[in-house]
């Protein structure tokens, strides 16, 4: 009797079978989501340098990270902020609810205004920071880095309020730089000159409404625009056409990150670890430990973490401080260890760069108190610089300085300058 033998598949047959399986499961082929602006961004992505922002495909850089940075500071830069988590919070108790869960006094936030805020767990540790937009007396939009819907819903028990994530439904753009106002005016947004810093207003666009706020993450003159997702491309095209003669350029995250560092702004899970992401207990941070103590109003009524935050202040239990550093030389001290007297490890740099605007080597660092708080002298950073395929260890002097590292008058000028 002849014995049956199994034919070994050749490589081409294996490839064909794999392709068939992938075709049947398309989510394995599309690893990242696209934003409503993705068609325009992909067309400009000359470098094909992408990263994942909350599951969306976002560019580190589109064409040249250096020139993209200078577009922010000398022209106007357009950045897709659609992946930013957005919640619509509305109802008769919306104000009382948000006043309960966030640090700042929401009763002082008037309709048509925005404020920067944060929220904590019951032990006073920061869950996230973000911006709160008051669109009407009973309607708000909360924007943040991380997702918090289960926590927000649990915290809403007993309040007459509805909470819905609208990240996919609402597209967002940041238009930043000295010519940003002129571009919006030339695009036909009449009255945009009346917006002061942290103001917002609604304007007509393509049969719908676009919300424009004078906010941003660059420390420069700038605006953020929010529009229904199906009107995203027409908004992009409207801005690009109006800005052609004023140097508008689309940019990626690397350039934005440089600008935010010069402005002394912090990023969740980069400059501090949020309470829900921290694995080790000593990574948790209270508002006072990351420069957000100004948000805490002891006279305000109860809010999440109030008792723990005030107790930490009274009993001097705060363990860390977030500081700005100026470092000698011109080599960025990215992720460098900070030492006291060159020997005692006291902290870590979370963001660093040579600032073209400040003409200084700057950094943000988290230090263990009292270093950076009452002890600010004899601090050093350990930098490893690549020198012909070999790392060279450099110990550079550092001094604590105030943030922001640069302060541009055009950011707050009202009415804004017509560059």
TrEMBL record:
Residues making up the signal peptide according to the UniProt record = none
Q: Which residues form the Aminomethyltransferase C-terminal domain?
A: 322-407
Q: What Pfam families does its record include?
A: GCV_T, GCV_T_C
Q: Which residues form the GCVT N-terminal domain?
A: 66-281
Q: Which domain of life is it from?
A: Bacteria
Protein name according to UniProt: Aminomethyltransferase family protein
Report the source organism: Mesorhizobium abyssinicae
Taxonomic lineage of the native organism? Bacteria, Pseudomonadati, Pseudomonadota, Alphaproteobacteria, Hyphomicrobiales
């Amino acid at each position: 009797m002849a014995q049956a033998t199994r034919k070994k598949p050749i490589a081409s047959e294996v490839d064909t079978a794999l392709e068939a399986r992938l075709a049947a499961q398309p989510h394995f082929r599309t690893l990242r989501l696209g934003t409503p602006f993705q068609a325009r961004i992909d067309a400009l992505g000359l470098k094909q340098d992408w990263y994942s922002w909350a599951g969306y495909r976002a560019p580190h850089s589109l064409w040249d990270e250096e020139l993209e940075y200078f577009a922010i500071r000398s022209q106007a830069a357009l950045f897709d902020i659609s992946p930013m988590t957005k919640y619509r919070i509305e109802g008769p108790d919306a104000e009382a609810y948000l006043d309960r869960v966030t640090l700042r006094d929401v009763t002082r936030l008037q309709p048509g205004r925005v404020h920067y805020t944060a929220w904590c767990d019951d032990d006073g540790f920061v869950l996230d920071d973000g911006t709160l937009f008051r669109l009407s007396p009973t309607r708000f939009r909360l924007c943040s880095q991380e997702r918090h819907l289960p926590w927000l819903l649990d915290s809403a028990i007993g309040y007459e309020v509805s909470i819905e994530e609208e990240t996919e439904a609402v597209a967002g753009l940041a238009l930043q730089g000295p010519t940003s106002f002129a571009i919006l005016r030339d695009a036909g947004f009449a009255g945009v000159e009346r917006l002061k810093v942290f103001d917002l207003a609604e304007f007509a666009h393509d049969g719908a409404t676009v919300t424009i706020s004078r906010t941003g993450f660059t420390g420069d003159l700038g605006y953020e625009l929010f529009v229904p997702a199906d009107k995203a491309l027409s908004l992009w095209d409207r801005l690009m056409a109006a800005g052609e003669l004023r140097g508008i350029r689309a940019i990626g995250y690397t350039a934005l990150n440089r600008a935010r560092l010069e402005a002394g702004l912090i990023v969740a899970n980069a400059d501090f670890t949020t309470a829900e992401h921290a694995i080790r207990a000593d990574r948790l941070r209270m508002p006072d430990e990351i420069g957000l103590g100004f948000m805490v109003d002891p006279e305000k009524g109860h809010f999440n973490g109030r008792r723990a935050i005030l107790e930490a202040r009274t009993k001097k239990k705060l363990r860390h401080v977030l500081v700005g550093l100026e470092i000698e030389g011109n080599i960025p001290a990215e992720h460098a260890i900070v030492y006291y007297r060159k020997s005692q490890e006291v902290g870590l740099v979370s963001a660093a760069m040579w600032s073209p605007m400040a003409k200084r080597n700057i950094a943000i660092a988290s230090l263990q108190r009292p270093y950076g708080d009452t002890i600010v002298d004899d601090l050093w950073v350990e930098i490893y610089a690549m020198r012909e395929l070999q790392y060279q260890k450099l110990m550079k002097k550092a001094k604590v300085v105030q943030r922001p590292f640069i302060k541009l008058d055009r950011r707050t000028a009202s009415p804004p300058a017509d560059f």
